[in-house]
TrEMBL record:
It catalyses: sn-glycerol 3-phosphate + NAD(+) = dihydroxyacetone phosphate + NADH + H(+). Residues 126-285 form the Glycerol-3-phosphate dehydrogenase NAD-dependent N-terminal domain. Pathway: Membrane lipid metabolism; glycerophospholipid metabolism; Phospholipid metabolism; Lipid metabolism. GO terms for molecular function: glycerol-3-phosphate dehydrogenase (NAD+) activity; NAD binding. Pfam families: NAD_Gly3P_dh_C, NAD_Gly3P_dh_N. This is Glycerol-3-phosphate dehydrogenase [NAD(+)]. Residues 52-83 are annotated as: Disordered.
């Protein structure tokens, strides 16, 4: 048997060479050197040593143990200290590479900050925020904190909210434990709020924006930049905010910027690190708004892809309802991941058909906002989904909420857009059907799992 083994091994000569302790008796092969050709390694040969489980030759069962063959003329290999020092040396080298990379990044960042312009904030005297909701309040406080002499007016509907902000510097409805800066002033008078404003932050829910803007159009300066904080689609017209604002103000040239990204109002109020994106077709305007809003705890990126930023911000609310339904039905983490991945694909399919850039959908306003809205309990839309999945009725859910879940009204508009652009969106369509009370969450899951299993795109 051993002789047969040796003959088979020798068949591969010259790659395999046998060494025998007795040249005339191949049965006593004690080592085989297996050389690996054309591999650039420190140990180009392996030494195979047969080991017998018994001293008797009649019962010998050869077993091979492979050990690296030491390279010739190497003194270091015989020194165990040299071998042990290899790992620490490599660790030191790796740490040095990481340290140098980080230092370069910090130097670049400091250099960039030293050259950054601050003239926009210096020249800005007044900012108006339309709407007294949670996000409008958070952004008003954020801008006011950047400059003490800056006037920040909040145009609100409710006289009690207005009184609360002016007398106690607190929006008790949304942030009862947070004090607003002294330079935040509330009013119910549109003329007072808009007079002399340098920038306008629009924080009115999408479905009410057209009628609201038409009512204040006479006080809006034609050159006043509108920064839209609202995310969604107008139900009957399928319009985005970039279309709603100029139309309602009867000024197609009204400067427009979309602000979007993963951002909860509460965390902005607490000055936790946040990153968002401003999108405008006017690059100079986008850069100006970046200067106005960026701070030590709020990073602002710029984009020219207004459509991508807006459509991602609108559709992620619908997907968040779907994610909430999965959680409410206790379907587990596997199904949650599968659903959100499918939803991201559907958003990308529709957005790119509408002219958006794929990179926008994978950026802050797309994937970033989707992750936040789908996975975190602070999300209003996710909360609606959780309660739907738990068996509650939509009317009961909405009547118990003091904030608007844009995904509920956006769902129908999304499906109409999908039909317009001929895009299949099974997950988001299922959400719209559930909201219309034409499909139960349980039935929707069954139908989605029964869809044809096609190639991933």
């Amino acid at each position: 048997m051993v002789a047969s083994l040796e003959s088979q091994l020798l068949f591969f000569n010259p790659i395999l060479t046998a060494k025998s302790s007795h040249s005339k008796t191949p049965l006593h092969v004690h080592s085989l050197i297996f050389k690996l050709p054309n591999f650039h390694t420190k140990n180009p040969a392996l030494l195979f040593t047969p080991i017998s489980s018994s001293s008797s030759s009649s019962t010998t069962t050869p077993r091979c143990v492979a050990t690296p063959s030491p390279p010739p003329n190497s003194d270091k290999d015989s020194d165990p200290v040299a071998i042990t020092n290899v790992a620490p040396d490599r660790t030191r080298d790796r740490r040095k590479i990481v340290r140098v990379a980080w230092e370069k990044l910090v130097r670049w960042s400091r250099s960039w900050r030293s050259k950054a312009k601050t003239d926009i904030l210096e020249r800005t005297k007044k900012v108006v925020v339309l709407g007294g909701g949670s996000f409008g309040t958070a952004m008003a406080a954020h801008v006011a904190n950047k400059k003490n002499k800056l006037e920040v007016y909040m145009l609100v509907r409710d006289p009690l909210v207005c009184q609360s902000i002016n007398e106690t510097h607190c929006n008790r409805r949304y942030f009862p434990e947070h004090k607003l800066p002294d330079n935040v002033i509330a009013t119910t008078d549109a003329k007072v709020a808009l007079l002399g404003a340098d920038y306008c932050l629009h924080a009115v829910p999408v479905q009410f924006s057209s009628s609201f803007l038409e009512g204040i159009a006479d006080y809006v300066d034609p050159g006043l930049p509108f920064i839209s904080l609202s995310k969604g689609l107008e139900l009957n017209t399928l319009r985005m905010m970039s279309q709603i604002i100029p139309r309602a103000l009867k000024n197609p040239r009204q400067p427009f910027i979309a602000l979007s990204g993963p951002s909860f109002a509460l965390e902005l109020m607490n000055k936790l690190p946040t990153a968002m994106v401003v999108a405008s077709k006017d690059k100079k305007l986008a850069n100006a708004v970046q200067q106005l809003l960026a701070s030590s705890h709020l990073r602002i990126s710029t984009s020219s892809d207004v459509t991508g930023v807006e459509i991602a911000g609108a559709l992620k609310n619908v997907l968040a309802i779907a994610a909430g339904i999965v959680d409410g039905m206790n379907l587990g983490n596997n199904s949650m991941a599968a659903l959100v991945a499918q939803g991201c694909s559907e958003i990308r399919w529709l957005a790119t058909k509408m002219g958006a850039k794929p990179t926008t959908i994978t950026g802050l306003s797309g994937t970033g906002d989707i992750m936040l809205t789908c996975f975190v309990n602070l999300s209003r839309n996710r909360t609606v989904g959780v309660r739907l999945g738990s068996g509650e009725k939509l009317d009961d859910i909405l009547s118990s909420m003091n904030q608007v879940a844009e995904g509920v009204s956006t769902a129908g508009a999304v499906i109409a857009l999908a039909q317009k652009y001929n895009v299949k969106m099974p997950v988001l369509t299922a959400v719209a059907r559930i909201i219309d009370n034409e499909l139960t969450p349980k039935k929707a899951v069954f139908e989605l799992m029964s869809l044809p299993q096609v190639e991933e795109v």
